[in-house]
């Protein structure tokens, strides 16, 4: 499938885990979708375990994909299993914009060299999947 079918629309790429959706994710997706057609790349279950530990992800990649596709802001979701696979997807999408959280300002943004512009999004404070999962773990241990 040629992801560049409509070259008149600005193409936007975001990637992440999106394990437990929260308002911070929604605001990010809303912001990015305002720039054009939004593709969200998500880490496979295997990759999430490697990056975040054996007790993650909370939701499977397929469930995360379905939840994201249900949102009006998201046009497509791609699941990647490795850094190299993600880079290939970004190259194929050929995004005008790549949007990442502002916590990546001083870090490597994988695949950003394939976007025409890298945009840092100011994250919504107080919202994180880790915070939610730690809270659930804490109350279940009481």
Question: What does this protein look like?
Answer:
The protein is α/β, with parallel strands linked by helices. It has a single domain (11-140), classed as 3-Layer(aba) Sandwich (Rossmann fold), CATH 3.40.50.620. It has 5 helices and 5 strands, in the order βαβααβαββα. The protein has helices spanning 23-33, 45-52, 61-69, 83-93, 129-140; strands at residues 11-16, 37-43, 76-80, 97-101, 117-121. Strands 3-2-1-4-5 form a 5-stranded parallel sheet, sandwiched between helices. It is globular, with a radius of gyration of 15 Å.
Quick summary:
The chain is an alpha/beta fold and 142 residues long.
CATH topology: Rossmann fold
Say how many strands there are: 5
Major sheet: 5 strands, parallel
Give the class-level CATH name: Alpha Beta
Percent of residues in beta strands? 15-25%
Beginning-to-end CA distance, first to last residue = 50 Å
Rg: 15 Å
Mean pLDDT figure: 88
Give the arrangement of secondary structure elements.
Blueprint: E1 11-16, H1 23-33, E2 37-43, H2 45-52, H3 61-69, E3 76-80, H4 83-93, E4 97-101, E5 117-121, H5 129-140
Parallel strand pairs: 1-2, 1-4, 2-3, 4-5
